[in-house]
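hey all, quick one before standup. I had two proteins in the batch that finished overnight and I want to keep them in one place so we stop losing track of which output belongs to which input. First protein below, input sequence then structure tokens straight from the run.
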Amino acid sequence: MRPIVLEQGEFYHVFNRGVEKRDIFSDADDLSRFLESIQAFNLPNPIGSLFEHRFQKETQLGSLTPKLVDVVCYCLNPNHFHLLLKQTSEKGIQKFMQRLGTGYTNYFNEKYSRSGGLFQGTYKSVHVESNEQLLHTSVYVNLNNQLGSLTPKLSASSWTEYMDSELGHMGSICEKEVILGQFESPDAYKKFANEALEMIVERKKQEKEMQWLLGSLTPKFERNAVQ
């Protein structure tokens, strides 16, 4: 359930999917565009079109401050995305998500000759209430494309950023220190993440089994009631 007020300085797991569960990323260019938009629209003042800013020097775009949000990690899957964000300015997440959603929808509709909304309503957000939840949410987001029965052929995740210590500032979207700073090394976080992923997968499996059980029992109860 989305919090009524998103507090400055707090962390939130933000996610959304395509309307009617449709794909919102159809090729690698779509993924690149969304990631570029994450950086370009993360500014206090509207920037206009992304095209207008594409020819600015990368150092200028990367150094503009303050930002609306800190992006801690992300995962883009064919029909949905996950972001772990820290709100760094008043209504930062609201402004950032509105600009990101509108900008990407306009790009997608023009590219694929469609019209109307692309996302399933307003984004959803979950307040991260503890450091333990923060760490586990980072795993859930970073490795979200590994949670399904099949790894999607088209996806992008900040897991590469977390594992590549050689990645320079200009190649990085995420503010990783809030997570990696709690571990001795990226490898230590990797070990934690893999162990946490196993627990997440098992929990999701149990939830699905419970849903199946409840679904299989309901018709029996209904038949008994009719008789």
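OK second protein, same deal, sequence then tokens:
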Amino acid sequence: MNMPKVETVEKKIAWIVSGVLGVIICLTAILLLRDSPLFDEYFLLAVVITVFPPAVLDYVDYRWKRSIDKHLPDLFRSIVQAQKTGMTLPQAMEEASKRNYGPLTKELKKMVAQMSWGVSFEEALRSFGKRVDTALVGRTVPLILEAQRAGGHVEKVFEPLEKFVQTTLTFDAERKTQTRPYLVIIYVAFFVFLFTIVMLFKSFFVDMSDFSTTQFTLMSPKEARSIFFHMSAIQAFFGGIVAGKMGEGTVGGGLKHSVILLTCGYLAFKFVV
């Protein structure tokens, strides 16, 4: 299933709306629940609500851009075949827009529509690059423009360009395969941390909560739970950010991991601790 395109303004709106909701929840907790056990939970809820909508939009946008890049080699291959039949580059683009390249087809149709309104091929291609805004498209658009200006056999440019894009996609897939074990390590480390906290809390702070001497007084279970809760939330949030940076190369890509880990940490403290 093709993911829809997410505009930059939609991401900004999501951050603003979720951020305002998060601030409202925080203020509510400060004003009404300062001494309540629910105080920490409300703050965690504020973080999740602030992060969750942008995380979803970032994931949808990532899938959309990945689908665009995935279909670029097929597009370049079609352009080469069309030009070998005598078509010009704009004609080859128009012919390619009639085929199915996932979300790339819609952007090609927009480009062809612009050219039919009198916009030059160069301007339409630049507009295409700005709309799509992926790393691979950003590298290939200038090369296409230079090849168009130079004239001659433009298909000789697209053949190595198609190989370059395919090689880049292959390397990217290999990098994700190699980094996947590290993502698993981050998740396993967090769950081991949670397990250690649960065992430590139940076997030490709870069982020995009544033990005290004149020289030594244990931390109360309530204080211990609060500290452990904060520690798990911090590790969950930043562990998710690191996972996204390693797996997708962006900090925004880690927001979804942060939400998952924060939710798991909250459930562990809610029902186990």
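Flagging for whoever picks this up: The domain at 69-170 is CATH 1.20.81.30 (Receptor-associated Protein). The chain has a mean pLDDT of 85.
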